[in-house]
């Protein structure tokens, strides 16, 4: 009988091995970029606030800055009168005109909204009392000096960009990993070379969709993809393309040829060029996943099936850089699994319940565009029952 | 007393008015781009599959293509023998060697995995029977001709890119909207001009963070941002910058100066250049939101406070282009609102419950980086109680 994957490693063990290598490997893989370009990149370091924000007490409304005690008891029927001054401090019985965002004058501790004031020549009638710090944004109210604004490993959002620029940070250190992408398979035709699908069909070919998909997945993970196109199932050609891609990048991702068929050369080639660290993981889909090292660079050998390669990418690459949000929702029907195997089940959220997507093989791509996320069934669990609350990783 | 926002419009009404204008405005605002550049853009049209996928029955495993009926009853103790042929069809008693992805030969309807076969010279021993279509990916199993692969208004994911390339689609039509971004306020300093935060503090200035934040928000929405920097609260300067930005872009977004203070010129300027469609919405935060038209282009006047402007952007721009995922989770504590007003409450998901973020003013930026999403409390609801299930829009 044919060759088989020898000893499958558990998902937990495989994850630990790969993530340990990531930790070591990424030590010097950063780049400093302008904050404006940082959207979607992953922070290489913790960033603390260098200052309090606001930096000074600010008026939160248009109106008049006052000493709150000078306004106590003021009302429409019993207005109080304050002298209008124009200086950087006020004294008892005085007020200063301010706009939203203005720095508060010295001694002032509140703002009376202009809707409750009437300005006359040199004085202001106050129709409503204010308590101390009413309508004032106080020093440090938004952010305290030393507050953690962005965590190492966190994806940078528009909100991070807002707060980092507010405290005067102009550049950020982000992970900078160049990723070479190679697809293998005699049956593949690169998209730009497709003349008609009819022609592909007649020649029993399919589009090399994995290169484009991985390009997008890598980009979405905050890393830098480069496509090397497809290579046929020929040991020497695969070897020379991997060599080239490894030299030109930090890591390489391949798809296809990672099983143990007669034409599955990838694992042997990685072993010749460097060394396979692991091959074959107790997961479904994605079992033939391989991971190795060549010249201190990393190589991930993924399946040719898009769904399997997506899952492998998700578990061993994306989830290192960008954590998914997790929620807990009830299952709409049973899902079965096998003891000893970790299952990754695509799901849809329907009426706020988890609907596992019925799919047959790992090749059913359309299940991915329909999925809202996935559920991981650990190896020591035989499945989940209808109504049970399960953790969902959200796309 | 001072001017006030006259008549506030309800959130539902405002949304309807703005979205109607978007619908009309976007009629010709598209661009055709290569599929590889489409990640994160928003599709301008429905895309149906032009073909069945797979285009032909394919082997789903390495092994031997057979007529299933020829293998019935085969087992380790009772192997059956088939003649090994090398042609595009097989007949009774024959088999053909295939690899994962190979086109199935004519008359074959199943694959016996090679692990259950032993190849000898000219024939193959079969150790396991297969049923019809076992280990075969059938025509149209992934996608049927005419299936909807991508919806108009849907954000393009790596999975869409995978499936679209698989069916041979090389380019996609996406929304193409150029967005000019202007911040107004005497107190603002553009980030690149900041020498030290100490200097800003001494001059009672703050960083123009809104331009950078909006740049990122616009980009994340699949649109094309362009920053015009800050302009002081001077009616003529604001007017000439808006004029320039309107000419050079499809829409303009401003921040600041949209209230009714003495220095709030934006609304008047929009009215002079074109017309304000609405100003003042019953939402919190974000009440002073304004929306207008100049030369058949759209202008959105947002608040100066980052949290308020983020919410306004979310409700009236982002949510038109990219729908948030919605889930339902129980509240960890009461949230109060006011009848007649729509509240947008930032929340965190903790232990799979919804924790409303305690924040004081609309200026508390840090609440945004901590938030996992938000809850909308409609105008006819006074609030929600602890334990109640609420709809969460996920960031």
UniProtKB/TrEMBL annotation, chains A, B:
Residues 180-323 form the MoaB/Mog domain. GO terms for cellular component: cytoplasm. One of its GO terms (biological process) is Mo-molybdopterin cofactor biosynthetic process. GO terms for molecular function: molybdopterin molybdotransferase activity. Transmembrane segments: none annotated. Signal peptide: none annotated. Keywords: Molybdenum cofactor biosynthesis. The keyword Cell cycle does not apply. It comes from the Archaea. Pathway: Cofactor biosynthesis; molybdopterin biosynthesis. InterPro entries: MoaB/Mog-like_dom_sf, MoaB/Mog_dom, MoCF_biosynth_CS, MoeA-like, MoeA_C_domain_IV, MoeA_C_domain_IV_sf, MoeA_linker/N, MoeA_linker/N_sf. PROSITE patterns: MOCF_BIOSYNTHESIS_2 (PS01079). Gene3D superfamilies: MoaB/Mog-like domain, MoeA, C-terminal, domain IV, Molybdopterin biosynthesis moea protein, domain 2, Molybdopterin biosynthesis moea protein, domain 3. CDD domains: MoeA. NCBIfam families: Glp_gephyrin, molyb_syn. Belongs to the MoeA family. This is Molybdenum cofactor synthesis domain protein. It comes from Methanotorris formicicus Mc-S-70. The lineage of its organism: Archaea, Methanobacteriati, Methanobacteriota, Methanomada group, Methanococci.
